[in-house]
Amino acid sequence: MAGGMILMAVYTGFFPVELAMIFHGFTQLLANGQRVVLWRKHLFWKILGAYFIGSLVSVLIFRAYSFVPDKALIYLALGLFPFLSLLKKGIQHLDIRKNWVSALCGIVVTGAQLVSGASGPLLDIFYIRSSLSRHEIIANKALTQTLGHGLKLFYYVSVVLSLGEEVKLMELSKLLILFPFMAVASFLGTLAGTFILKRIDENQFRLASQIVILSIGVFFLYRSWVNWNF
């Protein structure tokens, strides 16, 4: 939980935004894809169609403007997302298993991914009122996040290519050697998370998730304030 947010903090500390998004998309695509395989018996595949339509709408809108956020905006979004889960009104009917909710989730969450890289806490809102178990939540979040990060990876690669940013393309080509190491680290992290998940109950899972995610949100709000150009 919230691993994607932590990863964005690391990548944006070393790379320009476009490259950070590309590396993040690749790593998260692998990590979530592995979770899909590991927890495949808990998947609800019917949510994917509506989610994909919503995701595609977001990508097309962003692509029309070749939008690239600055780091302060990324940190602000990552800092605010965790606190959205505290809202009680208006989310009673946001059950991811409903087609219209799945499509809305695709639009909102994919848009958030393109702005901030990670959108796990925002995605959680669409699961709060569902009756899914922790295994089903992990599996189906991984399913939609695999699609979302794949689209994010495609989006930022296409933006860099279309803008002809040769310096960033050269930097990306030099750093491709890191991809195999990212794949191994992603695999090991997924195995570790699976080990922990099997040893905690539902209440521990939900409480720990909320505490960790809100703490990370405070950290990102501070980083946004530090990076903002007043």
Would you kindly provide a written description of the structure presented here, covering whatever features stand out?
The protein has 230 residues and is mostly helical. It has one domain. The chain has helices at residues 3-14, 17-38, 47-65, 71-84, 99-116, 120-124, 134-163, 166-174, 178-197, 202-227. Helix 2 runs antiparallel to helix 7, helix 3 (47-65) packs parallel to helix 5 and helix 5 crosses helix 7. The longest helix is centred in the middle third of the chain and has 30 residues, at 134-163. The protein is globular.
Number of helices: 10
Tell the overall outline.
Answer: globular
Total tally of structural domains: 1
Oligomer: single chain
Distance separating the two termini: 32 Å
- Radius of gyration, CA atoms, in whole angstroms: 17 Å
Number of beta-strand segments: 0
The SS-based structural class is mainly alpha
